[in-house]
Design goal:
Blueprint: E1 3-8, E2 13-20, E3 23-27, E4 36-37, E5 40-43, E6 49-51, H1 53-57, H2 59-65, E7 68-71, E8 84-86, E9 89-91, H3 93-110, E10 120-122
Parallel strand pairs: 1-10
Antiparallel strand pairs: 1-2, 2-3, 2-4, 5-6, 5-7, 8-9
Length: 123
């Protein structure tokens, strides 16, 4: 069974597609069917990353609390020396981008689709 995955890593939103036997399944936010916001919150104390629609919908409160770095467009930092300081070390743009991709992969699990081990990525 051949399955192909593709990811469109966007500045504001990211989405993906799974192709199996010529049938396409769009990947995004499983709960809403919309593309997944490319936003990540980094807990300043623990370094824990979280992303997705829940972070998007609470971004203003998260920013106001001062407890998290909220990265709304990691694409602009890829390839730079930018980092975000936490109580356990630095978080780099590649780690933040990985969280967006991990969030998309989690949508596969929510849909009981086969695990994504590799994908074509466009930016």
């Amino acid at each position: 069974m051949k399955i192909s995955y593709g990811i469109d890593f966007g500045t504001t939103n990211s989405a993906g597609i799974m192709v199996q036997h010529g049938h396409q399944v769009k990947l995004g936010d499983a709960s809403s069917g919309r593309p997944l916001p490319s936003i990540v919150a980094i807990d300043k104390a623990t370094g824990q990353l979280s992303g997705g629609r829940a972070v998007w919908e609470t971004r203003e409160q998260r920013i106001a609390s001062g407890r998290e770095h909220v990265v709304t467009s990691v694409k602009r930092y890829l390839g730079t020396s930018m980092t975000w300081a936490t109580g356990v070390g630095q978080v780099n743009p590649e780690q933040v981008a990985s969280e967006v991709i991990r969030q998309l992969a989690a949508q596969l699990t929510a849909r009981r689709a086969p695990e994504m081990r590799k994908a074509a990525l466009t930016m």
